Structure formats: C-alpha cells, structure tokens
Amino acid sequence: MEKIRVRFAPSPTGHLHIGGARTALYNWLIARQKKGRFILRIEDTDVERSTEESIRAILEGMKWFGLDWDEGPEKGGDHGPYLQSQRKELYAEAINKLLDEKKAYQCFCTPSELDAKKEKARTNKGQYAYDGTCRDLPKEKLTSSLEDGKPYVIRLKKREDKEIVFKDLIKGEIRIHSDTIDDFIIRRSDGNVVYNFAVVCDDALMKIDHVIRGDDHISNTPKQILLYEALGYDTPFFAHVPMILGEDKTRLSKRHGATSISQYRDDGFLPEALRNYLARLGWGYDDSQEIFSTDDLIKKFSIEKVSKNPAVFNYKKLEWLNGVYIQNLSLEARTEAVIPYLKEAGLIDDKFIRDNPDLLKEIVAVVGDRMKTLKDIVPYSDYFFMEKVQFDEDVKEKIFQKADLADAYQLIAKELEKVKTWDKENIEKELQAISDEVPIKRKDFFQAIRAALTGRLFSPDLTGMMVIMGKEKVLTRITNALNACTKDK
Ligand code: GLU
C-alpha cells in the first residue's frame, strides 16, 4: 500500500500562528501514525507580503514545536523544490498543457471592462461572473492580440454544468454546483499563477493524498477540484479544520493574548504541553483523559473525530496543563529548562552557573510544583539572586503599615543569629519559639518573615528557602525589613 502523504503549507507572511501550528500538528500526527510522510511547503508566491524572516520564524517554530518534516526546506526530497517561488517552471508547464488541451484560454478583457461588468451586475443586484467574452476568440484575433503584446490573464475553461461533490473528512459531504463558479483566473497578467492553481499543482506533483488545512480554505476547494480534473490528477481527500476562537467567540487574534508559537516558547511553555493542548483542542476523544503524551497522541489521534465546530482557546487550561508537564520533569530537566528564563531576566549568567553548580537545582526544588510556566521561576526566585530585596507595594501596605513588626523583626534577628547549625529543623524550631513570644498572629508572623526575605506576599516553602539563602543573607534582610517598616510607619 502507498504511504500516506500529508503536508503543511504556510504562507510566510508572519510568524507561525497557533492555528497554523495546530493544523501542522494534525498533519504530523497522521503521518507519524500511518508511517507516512509529512511535507513542509512554503507558499511564498505573494512577493509583497512574504519575507525571509517569516520563513525563518516558521521553520524555527516548527522545530521548537517538535514537528520534524520528511521533505521540505533544509531537508530536500524527491518532489522539490519546496518553496513555491522556485516552482515557476512547473506552473508554466501545467499552464501550457491546459492551453494546448484547450482547457484554459487567454483573456484580454481589460480591468476597466471587467469593472464595468461588475458594476452592472451590482446595479442589477446580481452576482458577477465572468461572461466568457474571450472564451472562444477566433484564431486570428487571438494571434493578433498576442502579437500586439496586449496584456492578458489565463482563465480555466469551466467544463459542463455539474455538481462538484466531495466528502470532507471533518465536515461531511459538501455539494456545490459548478454554475456558481465562473471561468476563473489561474494566471495573472504579470505571469504569476494564483494560489488555487499553485496549490493544486504542488499537491498533485508532491503526491499529497490528504489535504488537511484550515477551513478558511473550504470555499477554494471546489475550484481546486475543477483544476485537479482539468490537469488530469486524482483529487486527494480533504479535511478542513475549524478555526480557533477566543473566549469571546471571535477568531483568535492578538487581542486574546499570544498567538504566535514563538511567543509561547518565550512565555515559558513546554512544546510537549502545547502539543497536548492543541491536539486536544477540537479533537473529541474520551473526555476523561486530558494528558496525552506525544506517543499517545500518535496512537490515538484521528481526523474524523475533529469537531465540525470551532474550538475555543482556553488559556487557563493550557497553563494548567503546562504546569503538570513542568512538574513531571525530573529536577535536572526542570533546572535546565528554567535557565534561559533566569538568564533572560538578567538574574544569572554562565559564570554564576559555573560557580554555583548545585544552587539552581536547590532553588528549583524549593519552588516545587508552583510553576505554571517556566517563566514563573523568575518571580518565585529572583530574590535569591538579588543583592537587596525590592519590596512589593502590597508588602508595604499589607505588612509593614499594618502590624507593628519592629519588635518582632528585632527579636527574629537576635534569635536567629544564635542558631548554630543552619538547617531546616533548627530554623523551624527557632521560629516556632519566637512566634510563641510575639503578640502577632502566627500567620502574620510568618508572612512578615516571607515579606522580609522575598519582598513578596507569596514564596515557596519558607524554611527551605532560608536554608538556601544562608544565615548571613537572612539576617541582613530581616534588618533591612526592620528599617523599611519603621520608615514606612
Ligand atoms: N498557504 C495557505 C495558507 O497559509 C495554505 C494553503 C493550503 O493549505 O491549501 O493559508
């Protein structure tokens, strides 16, 4: 049996969008499940909007997201080139074939003539369709127009009236009468073929047998089917994946938050968590299962179970899922994973890592299961690296200005000074004893120490953190808090 061949065909006009990434993932999962081939093709025919930078961002995004391609840019393959801008000769051949077979024709109608026809259709409240003026031009007229160098487009000569039927693997059977399609343009007057034409040539020549793409392309499919037929190729199976919407049910856009894959990377998401989340978004499987390893997805995914309706992006759920994946990493892997975020925040550098081989691991261990994103390491640990604590505004308002802490801080500094063996057990014992002596609620007492050491109202395990920080730093910070709170009074 032939191996299944699927593709992802992004236009390099921006970053790799979360919706595109999900479409790519669905294609990739099917290819891996069926031991087929996953092809990456860059659709850069729109020269005005396509950029090198965007191609780079897409390739980088795909790599980070873990979707390796079997054929495509950087990789090559038997059906290349994999950039549409390098396939012009193939399109020219296909156009010539259609012209030779009289399945397409040159149209010399000028833009102003066509505009007038469109205007007329509008005033008559009708739908504009090309009227076929140039469909059967007499041979002499055609030759003289070509010789005169008159600009022309090339149109597909639509065949007999018939129903175009295809069974979309997600949306079900779709029927459209060919009456609703006119002799549409396949090559513009500048010599460039249109998207529908390039895509059909490419998919056919690249032997794609399942076209799985966003449903914003579903209205193009009937035209593409006519082109497959005209070019003498078998039509592939189609599956049109519904859009992703924001929580307000409008199409997911920047207004809803991050939409590019690279932004999710920068925000501290793990690719495996994002794969899990995006695969699950709109794919109906047993509702009791949320966590799918990538191997599990490869085993269980099926395009037929993707919902016909748009899926609503739930950032909170993605964050929760990411937290689960972070917790499941080994301490070593989690430490490695947070390093770039600590560096990015300017808290550590390579020298620091070299000089303190175990410290980062200890910090990551004490932060425990609190991180929802890798970037959360920054607010949960920045005070370890800072010379001096910055007190949050709410620490000033809720702690320093509320309770009378001066005596407590003084006592804490005095008693902790005496602790000989600076370990969790001794610190804990000492703090309990001081807490019994001061006229402050136990909860507020510990909150006050947390505030002094971190500048925040939240932190990981207090005594665990104090062990890592070391006695000297703890004492200095308690004294600084004492000064800050007497000043703020
Ligand atoms: N290049 C098109 C896009 O980025 C996709 C075309 C297709 O998948 O058929 O929207």
Q: What can you tell me about this protein's structure?
A:
The model has no long low-confidence stretch (mean pLDDT 94). The protein has 489 residues and is mainly alpha-helical. It has 21 helices and eleven strands. The strands form five sheets. Strands 3-4-7 form a three-stranded antiparallel β-sheet. Among the domains are: 87-241, HUPs (Rossmann fold); 330-384, Helicase, Ruva Protein, domain 3 (Orthogonal Bundle), CATH 1.10.8; 386-488, Orthogonal Bundle (Arc Repressor Mutant, subunit A). Helix 7 links the parallel strand 8 (210-214) and strand 9 (237-241). The structure holds glutamic acid (GLU). Glutamic acid binds at residues 9-11, 43, 199, 213, 217.
Helix and strand composition category? mainly alpha
Under CATH, the topology of the domain at 87-241 can be stated as: Rossmann fold
Largest beta-sheet characterization: 3 strands, antiparallel
Order of strands across the main sheet? 3-4-7
Q: Ranges with pLDDT <50 over ≥5 residues?
A: none
By CATH reckoning, the class of the domain at 87-241 would read Alpha Beta
Rg over CA atoms, rounded to whole Å, is: 32 Å
CATH H-level homologous superfamily name of the domain at 87-241: HUPs
The CATH level-2 architecture of the domain at 87-241 is identified as 3-Layer(aba) Sandwich
Question: Looking at the structure, what is the overall shape?
Answer: elongated
Give the distance, in angstroms, between the N- and C-terminal Cα atoms.
81 Å
What fraction of the residues are assigned to beta strands by DSSP? 5-15%
Number of strands: 11
